[in-house]
Design goal:
Elements: H1 3-7, H2 23-29, E1 33-37, E2 43-46, H3 48-54, H4 64-71, E3 74-79, E4 82-91, E5 94-104, E6 110-116, H5 118-155, H6 161-193, E7 201-204, H7 205-222, E8 226-231, E9 237-240, H8 242-259, E10 265-273, E11 276-283, H9 290-293, H10 316-326, E12 331-335, E13 341-348, H11 353-359
Parallel strand pairs: 8-10
Antiparallel strand pairs: 1-2, 1-6, 3-4, 4-5, 5-6, 7-9, 10-11, 11-13, 12-13
Bound molecules: adenosine-5'-triphosphate and magnesium ion (MG).
Amino acid sequence: MSNERRRSPGRRAADATLAPIDVEDAFVALTDGILLSDRRGKILSANPAAFRILGETKLVGRSFEELLLVSGATMVQDEEGHRVRRAWFPRDDRMGVLDMVSIALGDRGTLHTVRDVTAQAELLRLKEDFLLQVAHELRTPIAALSASLDLLLEDALSMPRDELGSMVSTLRRSALRLEHLVENLLDAGSIEAGTFQVRAIPASVRVSLQEALVFVQPLLDSKHQHLESDLHSDSDRVLADPRRTGQVLSNLIANASRYSPEATTIAVTSVTRGGFVHVTVSDAGPGIPQDEQTRLFQRFFRSREVRDQAGGLGLGLTICRAIVQAHGGEISIDSAPGRGTSVHFTLPKARHLTEEAGAQ
Ligand SMILES: Nc1ncnc2c1ncn2[C@@H]1O[C@H](COP(=O)(O)OP(=O)(O)OP(=O)(O)O)[C@@H](O)[C@H]1O
Ligand SMILES: [Mg+2]
């Protein structure tokens, strides 16, 4: 390193013509808090970020260690002259998390940097919760699969036909549930990564519904629910990815089934309006409170009403919205507690035969 560079730490190697940064400006502009305490621990100076993060009106003159006592800091690393601590402090309606590094400067006291890592800590907690939830969701179908397989292994040959039939449907239901879960997880990943794609071709809503039913019919049967479909013949042709359209329908019907009582009816209807096919999936379930409706399409969001009653990862609607929007359509919810839920989505209509031919 040249003497010139060593004297000007603010300069970048690539552009020696840049002026060095004024230390005082940097001190004020930093988003991490910086505090200097004297040898007895009294705070001598602090930058604006330190005031903002620690929320103290009077930092100067107070003891840094006393501040930490209040926040119940834990030691992460304590090497000579270099301490790393993590502290929790009350912030608005929840706890914030701070990472603090204290470096001894000999006679000049100690320099502390304080970083607000609340957002990262929350993300980590969400991820941990999510992993637990995924494990929990996988456990149920896997347990059902192995229980049925054990029974089959023991008694398959002597089992009455109808019993055998119901066991095989349980197996099928569990396998489909696993498939659905893994598919949702993979799709959520590609939506997040921005690589989610659909392949729109002229397709039939009716055919996509039939494909969705392969997955959801066992769910409906297990709750003695009935599906009524009223697809207007004029609204059958859409310019959409048939597999993805089936996925939207199966996610919406699975929700309608999962969150509605036994023996209720679920309706799927479609009509054409203004160049789009409008599809609606309605149920006679508990409905969704108004304040939660805007959050339903957020990843991992699950209503407090259902969270403990039914399993789920909170991904279905996020994926439905990504699919519908990727086709240029819209999705919305019409619901009120006690009045059931209707989810509407639109897909572009495949209008002319020439357009269909062109798209193929
Ligand atoms: N038809 C419905 N009736 C009542 N609540 C619903 C309905 N559909 C969705 N919800 C609420 O919206 C939340 C989010 O639904 P979403 O489909 O995204 O996730 P999920 O069903 O919880 O899990 P999964 O990832 O398995 O679909 C649900 O947890 C539930 O609280
Ligand atoms: Mg769902």
